[in-house]
Amino acid sequence: MIADDDLGDISHTAFNLFNGLEQTGKHAKTASETAGTGLKGDGFDTGAAFTDVIET
After folding, report:
1. Longest dimension (CA), the chain
2. 54 neighbors 31 (Cβ within 8 angstroms)
3. Sign of CA dihedral 55, 51, 20, 8
C-alpha cells in the first residue's frame, strides 16, 4: 500500500519535471529555429524543411 505522503512526493516531483521539460523545450525550439533559418539563408533545402517541422 502506498502512503498519501509518498503520492504527494511523486506528484511534486512529476510537476517539477514537467516544468523543467517545458522550459528546456522552449530553449530547444528557439535554437532550432535559429539553425533552420541559418541553413535556409545559406541555400540549404534542409533549412526550409527544418523550419517547417519546427512550426508543426
Report:
1. 61
2. no
3. positive
Q: Sign of torsion, CA 40 43 44 49?
A: positive
Q: Give the Cα separation of 33 and 19 in Å (integer).
A: 21
Q: Check residue 9 and give its pLDDT.
A: 92
Question: Does the pLDDT at position 7 exceed 80?
Answer: yes
Rounded to 10 degrees, the C-alpha dihedral 47/48/49/53 comes to 100
C-alpha cell, 31: 535554437
**16-56 pLDDT tens trace:** 998 888 878 888 888 889 999 999 999 999 998 988 888 87
